[in-house]
Design brief:
The protein has 229 residues and is mainly beta. The protein has a domain of 132 residues. It contains one helix and nine strands. The protein has a nine-stranded mixed β-sheet, with no helix packed on it. The protein starts with a helix and ends with a strand.
Length: 229
């Protein structure tokens, strides 16, 4: 009987916490200009919400941000990630709080914020977020704290942690596990393959293929490598 009572208390506590974290559910259609809401269907809005209020919105389906704030990205001074030159340890999801989680398809000129993208996110100009689990496509610029999957853009891809593929004119990751393809590729720690005109890595376990390749062991044209840390 005591065990049953204890289980009841635990389940009740979880339910209360869940309700506080996500109080409303919308079906078929809703706006992400809200708080503590799950939208199952189509979520629409114009711009991200930048305020000090505690906010959580989950979209399961399609999120349309029209126009989005991505069209202003070229006026900025790069992304926050481009100004970080070192990280300590592995990515810890518990260190991050997401304003939005998108499970499905996200389309805008560019979504910017504390967002977890799961699926496909398309920014016509630029998009910045915390996590990308899937495919992130941008006309100019992709920047994610962590990317698990594929980043494709016309100008630059950036990530603190990348597990997968980066394809762009310029690719940069502080810790890269996978493949970089572009004009210039940079990995502070590179575990995989770089293919480009100019490739550079400071700590390498893999292969570089390009016109000029630089790693901690040597500078070499055409092909370079290092398999020992």
């Amino acid at each position: 009987m005591k065990h049953i009572f204890l289980i009841f208390i635990i389940l009740f506590s979880i339910q209360v916490t869940s309700q506080e974290y996500n109080k409303k559910t919308r079906y078929f259609f809703g706006t992400f200009h809200t708080q503590n809401t799950t939208i199952n269907g189509i979520a629409v809005g114009a711009f991200p919400q930048f305020n000090d209020k505690s906010r959580f919105v989950k979209t399961n389906g399609i999120r349309l941000e029209i126009p989005g704030i991505g069209f202003l990205a070229p006026l900025g001074n790069g992304s926050r990630i481009s100004r970080i030159d070192s990280i300590n340890g592995k990515f810890n999801r518990e260190d991050y709080k997401f304003d939005e989680i998108i499970n499905g398809i996200n389309i805008s000129t560019g979504t910017i914020g504390d967002v977890n993208y799961n699926g496909i996110t398309i920014g016509a100009i630029a998009q910045f977020g915390i996590m990308n689990n899937g495919i992130a496509i941008a006309g100019l610029w992709n920047a994610m704290d962590k990317s698990n999957g594929i980043q494709i853009s016309g100008l630059a891809n950036e990530a603190l942690y990348s597990n997968g593929i980066q394809i762009s004119l310029g690719n940069s990751a502080l810790i890269m596990n996978g493949l970089q393809v572009g004009g210039t590729n940079y990995g502070k720690e590179m575990y995989g393959i770089q293919i480009g005109l100019y490739n550079k890595s400071e700590k390498t376990k893999g292969v570089q293929i390009g016109i000029w390749n630089v790693n901690e062991k040597r500078k070499f044209p055409l092909i370079n490598w290092n398999f020992r840390n």
